Amino acid sequence: MKRYSVFAIAREAMRHHTGWERAWRSPEPKKQYDVVIVGAGGHGLATAYYLGKNFGITNVAVIEKGWLGGGNTGRNTTIIRSNYLQDPSAAIYEKARSLYETLSQDLNYNVMFSPRGLLMLAQTHHEVRGYLRTVHANALQGVATEWIEPARVKELVPIINIDGPRYPVLGALYQARGGTARHDAVAWGYARACSAMGMDIIQQCEVKGVRSEGGAVTGVDTTKGFIGTKKLGIVVAGHSGQVADMAGFRLPVEAVALQALVSEPIKPCMDVVVMANTVHGYMSQSDKGEMVIGGGTDGFNNFTQRGSFHHIEETLRALIETFPMISRLKMLRQWGGIVDMTGDRSPIISKTPLGNCFINCGWGTGGFKAIPGSGWAMAELMAKGEPGALAKDFSMWRFKEGQFIDESVAAGVAH
Amino acid sequence: MLVLECPYCGVKAEETELSPGYEAHLKRFGPGSSDEEFESYMFARKNPKGVHFERWRHVYGCGKWFLAARCTATLEVFGTYPAQSSEPPADLVAKIKAKRPDWKGYK
Ligand SMILES: Cc1cc2nc3c(=O)[nH]c(=O)nc-3n(C[C@H](O)[C@H](O)[C@H](O)COP(=O)(O)OP(=O)(O)OC[C@H]3O[C@@H](n4cnc5c(N)ncnc54)[C@H](O)[C@@H]3O)c2cc1C
Ligand SMILES: [Zn+2]
Question: Name one GO molecular function term (chain B) (predicted).
């Protein structure tokens, strides 16, 4: 892999950009691998990357039915934060957030991490109490967050209306190092780094079946034939139930559609991320100038990557009181992704009933921010066969044991 | 946009008039049942990519719960029926079978 650098740009500028190489190879699958990961979203690719980087395991294939990053990773609104209440969540999301800080350097790929600051508005007294509690919990967890008063909110977000009649802004939970990153670049950066370590990223190849013998996986049947493996990682988000079904076990996961939309591009007007959970909406401004807006999930099982139109209307209606200026904006594009929701809305990073098969799913509406930390924890689980400190609370058996993580991490609101 | 016909009042109700209620024909487990039974009832809900039986409520109409068969991969609605049914009616199952020959059937 040729490194990207300012010198590379200068050199290529001199020779009409003829010397750039492909960012990753597109090989045919080999007969056998040490590890096969199903799903080339951010979580699958990050798992492969940290298997190589942290454990030296590089005989790895990542198998993707569409194109890499074409699932939720390429459809999300890219919000990154780690201001969670419970210790297991704060630990893994903060690990991820801190890895994002240096991810561009680590991957030699600009993922455009922008820690521009993130506010979660408190618009009811209940939220005020909840967020004050979160600030205290974060202080104990070593996650830097603070409580800010309405006047400070207005200073940070001049376009906001803090005295709405229905939902006045009573303050906010502020994480100064939260923000956004470029979603595609995260997938592409990991893919390029994996390919450089000799891993095979196989796109347009759907896993159709999982073969096992005596309680262990032997390989997967795909649209490009059988691929043998010593260990299997299932990281397919919305299709987790389907692939688990092929492997012969059942998951406590349901698939629903989550939507987002962007406005026409306008001049810079908001340089932080604002989330308004009471009204189920949030907004940030992209580098192109579009207002990026997300809302809630639809309430029924859905695999179509298409949500209900009235949800878009509800989200905008709710946000208009807090951001009056968006009432005059034209909305440009709207899309949906299929998110994987667990019973307690927290993720699963777990062993499975099959000894050499592992699962990472349930990130639901909020897993983009978790990609580096989740890949880190999943790689450790797959390399050692046992979960480490970050993954141990996210077992798929916690639903039977009643060991829930009492936090709607995935909230039902996109973020 | 989803349109489901309310089996009670016959109104072809559009999605905003309805409220979804997830899996139908759940077997409820209570005190005295095993951890597995309780987990399956509470959390391991059916999540097929295809034919799904589910509960809906005609919330801005007659207010009653009813059941529906719908495809989660295409949003096609096969039919609706009263909530007082312990399993999908035979004619609805036959209709779905005819449309989806590789459907494994209602279990
Ligand atoms: C509209 C929207 C907004 C969101 N906003 C945010 C946000 O602001 N912040 C945040 O943190 N999170 C957000 N999320 C959630 C986030 O996008 C996801 O949690 C995250 O991207 C999941 O990544 P993944 O790698 O697990 O899944 P994916 O990126 O979906 O990757 C899974 C891959 O598996 C592949 N696959 C499935 N089945 C098979 C098969 N049988 N064979 C081979 N490949 C298969 C799929 O094609 C897919 O590419 C949002 C999601 C949506 C939909
Ligand atoms: Zn009715």
Answer: sarcosine oxidase activity
